[in-house]
Specification:
With 274 residues, the protein is α+β, with helices and mostly antiparallel strands. The protein contains 4 helices and 11 strands; from the N terminus they run H-E-E-H-E-E-E-E-E-E-H-E-H-E-E. The N and C termini lie far apart (101 Å). 23% of the residues are buried.
């Protein structure tokens, strides 16, 4: 090792090492840092439970160095999934923040098939919603005071049996799904009730909501099988009140006789255990 004591040799070694660092190591390091890759970035704030759409995302090119391994690089991987956590505009999308299952508090909205609709009605006071005791899956009747301003209180034939699919507090969270609540020590009273309704039922409910006059009464709470019998009976009445559209002069026109004949046709009351 005596040659290391030679200053000339040491100088040459230092020069060689410097050249290796400058022309070999540094370029390789810089090359790794400068490599680019496409990733998916959020361009609109996304709340947990929201379904991801194309309008929420953007493909951007960034440096690949030190990126998380689970960063999403293909936009199709994210579209149609649900956010498992809040994401702000500018965030990268990670696969751990995506789920195939919608959030519990609005899962019912993703089971609509086009035949029926979800429509909410306001509970004007404590009594109109069964004193806060309504729950998802209940079958209720909608009572209409002074129906069509005729001075009579009726249960429209279209609304004798309607399914409750959500009961929501004024915080925006459903009261019976274990969602976030403002004060755990206080019971969150329902502010609205969301019902599963046909288009014909929805129109009547919208009119009653606009008038601010409706009352819900509980008809049945129990098994899904028996609840389905009530809905089946109601659907038959809807079919009788609103027959299939007839084509006249090239246009489809639906005959609507239900609103004027609420007392003529009534759904049969299913018996539990049938």
């Amino acid at each position: 090792m005596s040659f290391l004591k030679n200053r000339t040799v040491l100088g040459v070694i230092c020069i060689v090492l410097s050249l290796l660092i400058c022309f070999v190591v540094a370029p390789l390091f810089n090359s790794g840092i400068s490599q680019k890759t496409d990733i998916v970035r959020v361009i609109k704030d996304i709340k947990a439970g929201d379904q991801i759409t194309r309008e929420m995302l953007k493909i951007v090119e960034v440096g690949s160095y030190n990126l998380p391994k689970n960063v999403v690089k293909d936009v199709d991987t994210a579209i149609g999934k649900y956010a498992a956590a809040d994401m702000a505009a500018g965030d990268y999308i990670l696969s751990s923040k995506l789920t195939d299952v919608p959030a519990a508090e609005n899962a019912y909205l993703y089971h609509l098939d086009g035949e029926k609709q979800a429509i909410s009605v306001t509970l004007k006071n404590f009594a109109t919603g069964l004193s806060g005791k309504l729950a998802t899956g209940d079958i209720v009747s909608v009572i209409a005071p002074d129906y069509k301003k005729r001075g009579t209180t009726v249960i429209p034939a279209e609304l004798k049996y309607v399914e409750v699919i959500a009961v929501t507090a004024n915080t925006g969270y459903d009261t019976d799904t274990g969602g976030q609540r403002g004060n755990e020590d206080e019971k969150q009273l329902p502010s609205t009730v969301t019902l599963l309704a046909s288009p014909e039922q929805s129109k009547i409910l919208a009119e009653l909501e606009a008038d601010g006059k409706l009352h819900l009464s509980l008809v049945y709470r129990g098994s899904k099988e028996n609840a389905a019998k009530f809905i089946e009976a109601q659907d038959k009445v809807i079919e009788e009140l609103y027959p299939s559209a007839k084509v006249q002069t090239g246009e489809e026109k639906t005959e609507s006789i239900g609103a004027e004949n609420t007392g003529n046709i009534k759904p049969d009351t299913p018996k539990e255990g049938e």
